[in-house]
Amino acid sequence: MYIKRKFEEHFFLNPGQLIVSSKDMPVMTILGSCVAITVYSPDKRTGAIFHAMLPEHRDKNKVISNSPPVSPDPDYVDYAFYYVREKFRQKGINFKTAQFMLFGGGDVIQSLSSGRRVSVGFQNISMAKKLIEQEGVSLHGEDVGGSKGRKLIFLPSEGKVYVEYLKNNPQ
């Protein structure tokens, strides 16, 4: 969905943050190579979104109940994914029946390397899809990759996401 409405009040989700909410307050974030996963439970009218900058850290710990060892904080896709899963479990929400959408992972920064290097955006997308597959859930929608950033507005109580592509700045 593309942004057609104006949202006067909203919560701005910074990189490395996540939110689980049933409130009507829209959540806005800006993505470049970062990824966001939205999770929505129609039964409980509860949604979650995270904004992760990197796929995973090499040092992993057992810090979230019922999850494998994960990276140390929500800057990482693996930690944020399992944190949201645990919060849904605590609220009595079946994670496997929730609706998942994946956004971001764009190649918005020109690589200074030879082009053989896999971009951070691609790695973030790959990690998110790997976790979704391992968890046995499916994506209800995705808008990933490309060369443009995205502005997202997520409505946690409705599960709707509005996307607007950002213009690339000329160098």
Q: How would you summarize what this structure contains?
A:
The protein is of the alpha+beta class and 171 residues long.
Which labels suit this protein?
single chain; 9 strands; alpha+beta; 171 residues; 60s Ribosomal Protein L30, Chain: A; 18% helix; four-stranded mixed β-sheet; 2 helices
CATH architecture: 2-Layer Sandwich
Q: Strand arrangement, largest sheet?
A: 2-5-4-6-7
Could you say which structural class the secondary elements and strand pairing correspond to?
A: alpha+beta
On the 0-100 scale, what is the average pLDDT? 90
Low-confidence stretches: none
The coarse overall form would be globular
Strand content: 25-35%
Give a description of the structure.
The protein has 171 residues and is of the alpha+beta class. It has one domain: 60s Ribosomal Protein L30, Chain: A (2-Layer Sandwich), CATH 3.30.1330.200. The protein is built from two helices and nine strands, in the order E-E-E-E-E-H-E-H-E-E-E. The chain has helices at 77-90, 120-135, and strands at 11-12, 18-21, 27-31, 35-41, 46-52, 99-104, 139-144, 150-155, 160-165. A five-stranded mixed beta sheet has the order 2-5-4-6-7, with helices on one face. A four-stranded mixed beta sheet has the order 1-3-8-9, with no helix packed on it. Strand 6, helix 2 and strand 7 form a beta-alpha-beta unit. The longest helix is centred in the C-terminal third of the chain and has 16 residues, at 120-135. 35% of the residues are buried.
